[in-house]
Specification:
The protein is mainly beta and 119 residues long. The chain has one helix spanning 6-10, and strands at 20-25, 28-38, 49-55, 57-61, 66-70, 74-77, 84-98. Strands 1, 2, 3, 4, 5, 6 and 7 form a seven-stranded antiparallel beta sheet that branches.
């Protein structure tokens, strides 16, 4: 058992759309990631996904609407729902999702991360 300082862990990296594993429990992973710019449209057929904003803000685009998520807010994207995160400025996010969740879901590309670093 070890406590995690989120700010300290976020200071260990500066790249975008490259999640790191900060903790694991019950088959779930707590991931930290920084966004800036547009991610790719994707969905997760088998997993729900939670985005919690630690610092900054971003918008999450759905096919029928856009939702703004600010500091200390979170959104849960249900499995099967297409979405695309977009951040005008840098935002720090905590993700909580099953360990099997691929960051780009059903979309393979340059931003796909099959192996995540533990920090």
């Amino acid at each position: 058992m070890e406590k995690i300082n989120v700010e300290e862990k976020l200071s260990l990296f500066n790249d975008y759309f490259n999640p790191r594993i900060a903790g694991e429990l019950n088959g779930q992973q707590v991931k930290l990631v920084k966004f800036q710019g547009e991610f790719v449209w994707h969905k997760h057929d088998n997993e729900d996904e939670m985005f919690y904003v630690i610092k900054g803000q971003f918008s999450i685009h759905f096919r029928d609407k856009v939702v703004e998520i600010k500091e200390n807010e979170f959104i849960i994207v249900p499995r099967g729902v297409e979405h695309k995160p977009v951040a005008e400025n840098e935002v720090s996010i905590m993700l909580f999702e099953p360990a099997t969740t691929l960051n780009t879901g059903n979309t393979e590309g340059d931003l796909t991360r099959h192996q995540l670093e533990k920090i």
